[in-house]
Amino acid sequence: MFTETQDVHPPQPTTTHAEYGAGEPHLLIVGEDDRRVFLIQEDLITIGSDAGNHVVLEGTKPLHATIRHDEKDEYLLTMHGPGDMNARPIEGSDDRTEVLRTGARFTMGPWRIVYMRAEFADHGRPYGGREGGEGTHQHRQPDRPDYHH
After folding, report:
1. I want to staple 48 with a disulfide (CB 3.0 to 4.6 A). Which of 8, 64, 73, 145 is the partner?
2. pLDDT per residue over 119-137, tens digit each?
């Protein structure tokens, strides 16, 4: 028997504007006999077969793709070589660049790659993300903080 009042409604998240770079952005990389996790800890990540890249993947172009962390706290994938992308390219972009969101998938040669970032910091899904009701009307979240500092 309960003798004290308990709050049965947990706090509801209202924004996905966490601190700059928060949410442990990382790549899940899968090849035929290889599985890796690569933490994104720099503002420019290079991926390809050249030994000087941050992520070296055999069977890809020397510089196959880059991931850039921009001033708005977005991670942008630019494909320089062939491969599939499942997110929508940025409108007006002359190259194959897309904003990465949690679960975005892309391929390079024999490699399948998934971008992951905790949804509380992913900017794309306010008010609980998928937990808040996929496909339902969601209120506009507050403007993004100024990350320039």
Report:
1. 64
2. 777 766 555 455 544 555 5
Distance, CA of 110 to CA of 18 (rounded, Å): 34
Give Dmax (Cα) for the chain: 67
Residue partners of 127: CB distance under 8 A and separation at least 6: 12, 13, 14, 138, 139, 141
pLDDT, tens digit (0-9, with 9 covering 90-100), for 43-88:
999 999 999 999 999 999 999 999 999 988 889 999 999 999 986 6
Give me 1's structure tokens.
């028997």
pLDDT band at 145 (very low <50, low <70, confident <90, very high): low
pTM (whole model) above 0.70: yes
C-alpha distance across the termini of the chain, in Å: 52
